Amino acid sequence: MRASGRLVAGASRRLRRVAGQAVAASVATTDPDARPLPPRRRPVGSPLVGRRFGPGPGLPVLAVAAVMVLIVAMLGIEQVTGINVLPDSLSAGLRQPPKKFPVLPASRPTDLAINKIDVRAPVHDVGIAADGTIAVPDAARAQEAGWYDQGPTPGQYGPAVIVGHVDTTSGPAVFHQLGELRSGDEIEVTRSDRSVAVFEVDSVDHFDKGRLPVDEVYGDFSRPGLRLITCGGRWVGGETGYSDNVVVFASLVKARGA
Protein backbone atom coordinates (compact mmCIF):
# COMPACT_ATOMS: atom_id res chain seq x y z
CA MET A 1 0.00 0.00 0.00
CA ARG A 2 2.87 2.39 0.79
CA ALA A 3 4.49 1.73 -2.58
CA SER A 4 1.13 2.23 -4.30
CA GLY A 5 0.62 5.47 -2.43
CA ARG A 6 4.03 6.76 -3.50
CA LEU A 7 3.25 5.92 -7.13
CA VAL A 8 -0.07 7.76 -6.94
CA ALA A 9 1.51 10.78 -5.27
CA GLY A 10 4.32 10.84 -7.84
CA ALA A 11 1.88 10.66 -10.75
CA SER A 12 -0.19 13.43 -9.21
CA ARG A 13 2.84 15.68 -8.84
CA ARG A 14 3.92 15.04 -12.44
CA LEU A 15 0.47 15.87 -13.78
CA ARG A 16 0.21 19.05 -11.73
CA ARG A 17 3.70 20.19 -12.71
CA VAL A 18 3.02 19.74 -16.41
CA ALA A 19 -0.43 21.30 -16.12
CA GLY A 20 1.05 24.29 -14.37
CA GLN A 21 3.28 24.87 -17.34
CA ALA A 22 0.54 24.18 -19.84
CA VAL A 23 -1.29 25.84 -21.16
CA ALA A 24 -24.08 28.18 0.38
CA ALA A 25 -27.31 28.30 1.24
CA SER A 26 -29.11 26.92 4.29
CA VAL A 27 -32.65 26.70 5.65
CA ALA A 28 -33.16 27.62 9.28
CA THR A 29 -34.89 24.98 11.43
CA THR A 30 -36.54 25.36 14.79
CA ASP A 31 -35.03 23.97 18.00
CA PRO A 32 -37.43 21.22 19.30
CA ASP A 33 -36.34 21.92 22.89
CA ALA A 34 -37.02 25.63 22.75
CA ARG A 35 -40.21 27.05 24.23
CA PRO A 36 -42.68 28.50 21.76
CA LEU A 37 -42.75 32.27 21.59
CA PRO A 38 -45.86 33.92 23.00
CA PRO A 39 -48.30 35.14 20.35
CA ARG A 40 -47.63 38.72 19.32
CA ARG A 41 -50.61 41.04 19.59
CA ARG A 42 -51.74 42.64 16.37
CA PRO A 43 -52.07 46.41 16.59
CA VAL A 44 -55.61 47.61 16.37
CA GLY A 45 -56.61 48.41 12.83
CA SER A 46 -53.68 46.64 11.13
CA PRO A 47 -54.88 44.37 8.32
CA LEU A 48 -54.20 40.64 8.36
CA VAL A 49 -52.21 39.17 5.48
CA GLY A 50 -54.94 36.62 4.99
CA ARG A 51 -57.53 39.33 4.53
CA ARG A 52 -55.34 41.19 2.08
CA PHE A 53 -54.29 38.30 -0.14
CA GLY A 54 -56.93 35.72 0.61
CA PRO A 55 -56.51 32.39 2.45
CA GLY A 56 -53.44 30.27 1.67
CA PRO A 57 -49.85 29.60 2.76
CA GLY A 58 -47.89 32.40 4.33
CA LEU A 59 -45.08 34.27 2.61
CA PRO A 60 -42.26 32.27 4.30
CA VAL A 61 -43.77 29.00 3.01
CA LEU A 62 -44.11 30.45 -0.48
CA ALA A 63 -40.51 31.68 -0.37
CA VAL A 64 -39.16 28.25 0.61
CA ALA A 65 -41.30 26.63 -2.10
CA ALA A 66 -39.91 29.06 -4.67
CA VAL A 67 -36.34 28.23 -3.63
CA MET A 68 -37.02 24.49 -3.96
CA VAL A 69 -38.54 24.98 -7.41
CA LEU A 70 -35.43 26.93 -8.42
CA ILE A 71 -33.13 24.17 -7.13
CA VAL A 72 -35.05 21.49 -9.03
CA ALA A 73 -34.90 23.59 -12.18
CA MET A 74 -31.14 24.07 -11.82
CA LEU A 75 -30.63 20.34 -11.31
CA GLY A 76 -32.56 19.83 -14.55
CA ILE A 77 -30.25 22.28 -16.31
CA GLU A 78 -27.23 20.34 -15.03
CA GLN A 79 -28.66 17.07 -16.33
CA VAL A 80 -29.31 18.51 -19.81
CA THR A 81 -26.19 20.64 -20.25
CA GLY A 82 -23.65 18.74 -18.16
CA ILE A 83 -22.60 22.03 -16.54
CA ASN A 84 -22.61 22.34 -12.73
CA VAL A 85 -24.66 25.41 -11.80
CA LEU A 86 -25.35 24.66 -8.13
CA PRO A 87 -22.75 25.30 -5.42
CA ASP A 88 -21.52 22.09 -3.77
CA SER A 89 -22.66 23.26 -0.33
CA LEU A 90 -26.22 23.55 -1.58
CA SER A 91 -26.33 20.51 -3.83
CA ALA A 92 -24.83 18.00 -1.39
CA GLY A 93 -27.43 15.29 -0.90
CA LEU A 94 -29.48 16.43 -3.92
CA ARG A 95 -27.40 14.98 -6.74
CA GLN A 96 -27.27 11.22 -7.19
CA PRO A 97 -24.41 9.62 -5.22
CA PRO A 98 -21.37 8.45 -7.24
CA LYS A 99 -21.72 5.03 -8.78
CA LYS A 100 -19.59 2.12 -7.64
CA PHE A 101 -16.51 1.54 -9.71
CA PRO A 102 -13.90 -1.11 -10.41
CA VAL A 103 -10.15 -0.47 -10.31
CA LEU A 104 -8.05 -1.93 -13.11
CA PRO A 105 -4.37 -2.82 -13.30
CA ALA A 106 -2.06 -0.76 -15.47
CA SER A 107 -2.59 -1.28 -19.20
CA ARG A 108 -2.04 1.38 -21.87
CA PRO A 109 -5.03 2.45 -24.02
CA THR A 110 -5.17 1.41 -27.67
CA ASP A 111 -8.58 2.61 -28.90
CA LEU A 112 -11.26 5.14 -28.00
CA ALA A 113 -14.98 4.93 -28.81
CA ILE A 114 -17.64 7.58 -28.11
CA ASN A 115 -20.98 6.58 -29.67
CA LYS A 116 -22.66 9.90 -28.89
CA ILE A 117 -20.39 11.82 -31.27
CA ASP A 118 -19.47 8.90 -33.56
CA VAL A 119 -15.81 8.70 -32.56
CA ARG A 120 -13.74 5.59 -33.27
CA ALA A 121 -10.06 6.36 -32.96
CA PRO A 122 -6.77 4.65 -32.23
CA VAL A 123 -4.84 5.94 -29.23
CA HIS A 124 -1.06 6.28 -29.12
CA ASP A 125 1.29 7.51 -26.42
CA VAL A 126 2.32 11.14 -26.05
CA GLY A 127 4.76 12.57 -23.54
CA ILE A 128 6.02 16.02 -22.69
CA ALA A 129 6.63 18.57 -25.44
CA ALA A 130 9.81 20.65 -25.70
CA ASP A 131 8.14 23.55 -23.88
CA GLY A 132 7.18 21.33 -20.93
CA THR A 133 3.48 20.97 -21.81
CA ILE A 134 1.59 17.77 -22.56
CA ALA A 135 2.36 16.89 -26.17
CA VAL A 136 -0.40 16.44 -28.77
CA PRO A 137 -0.51 14.10 -31.76
CA ASP A 138 1.25 15.24 -34.92
CA ALA A 139 -0.97 16.99 -37.43
CA ALA A 140 -0.58 13.97 -39.72
CA ARG A 141 -2.28 11.87 -37.00
CA ALA A 142 -5.10 14.33 -36.30
CA GLN A 143 -7.71 11.55 -36.41
CA GLU A 144 -5.94 9.76 -33.55
CA ALA A 145 -5.93 10.55 -29.83
CA GLY A 146 -2.90 10.75 -27.56
CA TRP A 147 -2.67 9.29 -24.06
CA TYR A 148 -0.32 11.15 -21.71
CA ASP A 149 2.09 8.36 -20.73
CA GLN A 150 3.37 10.02 -17.53
CA GLY A 151 -0.02 9.63 -15.82
CA PRO A 152 -2.35 6.76 -14.89
CA THR A 153 -3.62 4.37 -17.52
CA PRO A 154 -7.43 4.37 -17.98
CA GLY A 155 -8.92 2.39 -15.10
CA GLN A 156 -6.21 3.04 -12.56
CA TYR A 157 -6.75 5.45 -9.68
CA GLY A 158 -6.43 9.03 -10.85
CA PRO A 159 -7.17 10.97 -14.03
CA ALA A 160 -6.00 9.33 -17.24
CA VAL A 161 -5.44 12.13 -19.76
CA ILE A 162 -6.22 11.74 -23.46
CA VAL A 163 -5.73 14.69 -25.80
CA GLY A 164 -6.67 15.30 -29.41
CA HIS A 165 -6.99 17.96 -32.09
CA VAL A 166 -10.28 19.75 -32.72
CA ASP A 167 -9.40 20.50 -36.35
CA THR A 168 -6.57 21.09 -38.79
CA THR A 169 -6.10 23.21 -41.89
CA SER A 170 -7.66 20.37 -43.88
CA GLY A 171 -10.84 19.93 -41.79
CA PRO A 172 -12.32 18.52 -38.56
CA ALA A 173 -10.12 16.31 -36.36
CA VAL A 174 -10.83 13.52 -33.86
CA PHE A 175 -12.25 15.71 -31.06
CA HIS A 176 -14.16 18.16 -33.27
CA GLN A 177 -17.48 17.42 -31.50
CA LEU A 178 -16.13 16.84 -27.99
CA GLY A 179 -18.02 19.83 -26.60
CA GLU A 180 -21.33 18.20 -27.52
CA LEU A 181 -20.98 15.50 -24.86
CA ARG A 182 -23.29 15.71 -21.86
CA SER A 183 -23.49 14.24 -18.37
CA GLY A 184 -24.27 10.52 -18.55
CA ASP A 185 -22.77 9.89 -22.01
CA GLU A 186 -20.45 6.89 -22.16
CA ILE A 187 -16.84 6.72 -23.30
CA GLU A 188 -15.18 3.36 -23.95
CA VAL A 189 -11.42 2.90 -23.84
CA THR A 190 -9.97 -0.38 -25.08
CA ARG A 191 -6.70 -1.28 -23.40
CA SER A 192 -3.71 -3.39 -24.47
CA ASP A 193 -4.82 -6.24 -22.18
CA ARG A 194 -8.02 -6.37 -24.31
CA SER A 195 -10.20 -5.10 -21.48
CA VAL A 196 -12.60 -2.20 -22.07
CA ALA A 197 -12.88 0.56 -19.47
CA VAL A 198 -16.28 2.25 -19.61
CA PHE A 199 -16.43 5.83 -18.35
CA GLU A 200 -19.46 8.04 -17.78
CA VAL A 201 -19.26 11.78 -18.43
CA ASP A 202 -19.62 13.90 -15.31
CA SER A 203 -19.31 17.31 -16.94
CA VAL A 204 -17.91 19.22 -19.90
CA ASP A 205 -16.18 22.53 -19.19
CA HIS A 206 -14.41 25.32 -21.07
CA PHE A 207 -11.34 26.88 -19.46
CA ASP A 208 -9.23 29.80 -20.61
CA LYS A 209 -5.83 28.33 -21.51
CA GLY A 210 -4.16 30.78 -19.17
CA ARG A 211 -6.43 29.87 -16.23
CA LEU A 212 -6.65 26.08 -16.33
CA PRO A 213 -7.61 24.85 -12.80
CA VAL A 214 -4.78 22.37 -12.29
CA ASP A 215 -6.10 20.66 -9.15
CA GLU A 216 -9.58 20.26 -10.59
CA VAL A 217 -8.36 18.76 -13.86
CA TYR A 218 -5.37 16.71 -12.71
CA GLY A 219 -5.58 16.38 -8.94
CA ASP A 220 -8.40 13.93 -8.19
CA PHE A 221 -6.94 10.53 -7.27
CA SER A 222 -9.98 9.39 -5.27
CA ARG A 223 -11.20 7.08 -8.04
CA PRO A 224 -10.36 6.09 -11.65
CA GLY A 225 -11.14 9.03 -13.92
CA LEU A 226 -10.67 10.21 -17.47
CA ARG A 227 -9.97 13.64 -18.94
CA LEU A 228 -10.47 14.25 -22.64
CA ILE A 229 -8.90 17.55 -23.68
CA THR A 230 -9.01 19.56 -26.89
CA CYS A 231 -9.12 23.19 -28.01
CA GLY A 232 -12.19 25.42 -28.16
CA GLY A 233 -13.48 28.95 -27.79
CA ARG A 234 -12.39 31.83 -30.02
CA TRP A 235 -9.67 31.54 -32.61
CA VAL A 236 -6.92 33.96 -31.59
CA GLY A 237 -4.15 32.64 -33.81
CA GLY A 238 -0.43 32.63 -33.10
CA GLU A 239 0.99 30.00 -30.75
CA THR A 240 -2.25 30.00 -28.74
CA GLY A 241 -4.60 29.00 -31.55
CA TYR A 242 -7.97 28.71 -29.83
CA SER A 243 -8.52 30.66 -26.61
CA ASP A 244 -9.87 27.80 -24.48
CA ASN A 245 -9.39 24.18 -23.55
CA VAL A 246 -12.47 21.95 -23.66
CA VAL A 247 -12.17 19.38 -20.87
CA VAL A 248 -14.45 16.36 -20.47
CA PHE A 249 -14.53 15.00 -16.91
CA ALA A 250 -15.54 11.33 -16.74
CA SER A 251 -15.51 8.55 -14.13
CA LEU A 252 -15.03 4.81 -14.51
CA VAL A 253 -18.31 2.97 -13.95
CA LYS A 254 -17.63 -0.55 -15.29
CA ALA A 255 -15.22 -2.71 -17.23
CA ARG A 256 -15.56 -5.57 -19.67
CA GLY A 257 -13.11 -8.42 -20.16
CA ALA A 258 -10.97 -7.36 -17.23
From TrEMBL:
GO terms for molecular function: hydrolase activity. Keywords: Hydrolase, Membrane, Transmembrane, Transmembrane helix. Pfam families: Sortase (PF04203). The keyword Oxidoreductase does not apply. The chain crosses the membrane at residues 58-77. Residues 26-48 are annotated as: Disordered. Coiled coil: none annotated. This is Class F sortase. It comes from Micromonospora profundi.
